[in-house]
Design goal:
alpha+beta; Alpha-Beta Plaits; five-stranded antiparallel β-sheet; 6 helices; flat
Length: about 250
């Protein structure tokens, strides 16, 4: 019995990692099903709306008021179901600033001060970040590239903040991919490399699966580097629902 307890104690962190990964895999499957359901609902809503509009504007083939009322009720039901999925998908999303007066200059200042704040926070929490997050800091970026770069940076910043809050020892690399438009939401893929203790890695994975997180884990590998220290490589998707937003930047 003591031998079994000793084995469990020795490998408790590894067992915790395996359990969390299993939970995440299940969550990813359910989230994938949810995204498919949302996409299906979006199509049904558009179809019902088109039918109602066609009936209301068509004079010769206009149906009875009863049929229009029935279609309207069906559309309202689908709207409610659609909003339920949206509200339960995630509770927070990146807030991308808009630069209108001198976009290239404003973006450069935004990037400089945001990165400086991020690195100071990491240093205060004893988290090591890579020398660069991969965003151009010299010269001026063409205005047409700024919306994409600002979105990528906001997502990277949110992910780094999450990693810092989890207390992960080292962020080795973080690389955002190209944003992809899917139905009414955007997907931004990311590649991540981190290093930390078992507790830190487990805490980070739990943060990723928190309902307030808009990050989804695609793939995940763990290598034990030394006693109590693990190196993790992960692929993630940032799923950003298109919701009404208020323009302007908070000061």
């Amino acid at each position: 019995m003591k031998k079994i307890k000793g084995i469990l104690k020795r490998y408790s962190l590894l067992l915790s990692l395996i359990i969390v990964i299993g939970i995440i895999a299940t969550g990813y499957f359910l989230t994938k099903k949810m995204r498919a359901e949302i996409k299906k609902l979006e199509g049904e809503i558009k179809t019902k709306y088109s039918q109602i509009t066609a009936y209301e504007t068509g004079k010769e083939e206009a149906p009875s008021p009863e049929l229009i009322a029935k279609l309207t009720r069906e559309k309202e039901y689908l709207d409610r179901k659609f909003n339920f999925f949206m509200n339960n998908f995630s509770t927070t999303y990146p807030v991308v600033p808009e630069f209108t007066l001198y976009p290239s200059v404003e973006y450069k200042e935004f990037l400089y001060f945001s990165q400086d704040r991020l690195y100071k926070k990491a240093e205060k929490r004893n988290v090591i970040l890579p020398g660069s997050l991969g965003f151009q800091t010299t010269g001026l970026v063409p205005p047409e590239q700024i919306p994409k770069l600002a979105l990528q940076f906001e997502v990277v910043e949110d992910l780094v903040n999450l990693i810092i809050d989890a207390g992960v020892t080292v962020v080795e690399s973080i690389t955002p991919g190209e944003p992809q438009q899917v139905a009414f939401y955007q997907v931004l893929p990311l590649k991540l490399g981190i290093k930390g203790t078992g507790n830190e890695i487990v805490r980070f994975l739990k943060y990723i699966e928190n309902p307030s997180s808009y990050f989804l884990l695609k793939n995940f590998s763990v290598i034990k580097e030394s006693e109590g220290l693990f190196r993790v490589s992960a692929g993630l998707n940032a799923v950003i629902i298109k919701k009404p937003k208020t323009k302007g930047i908070e000061g």
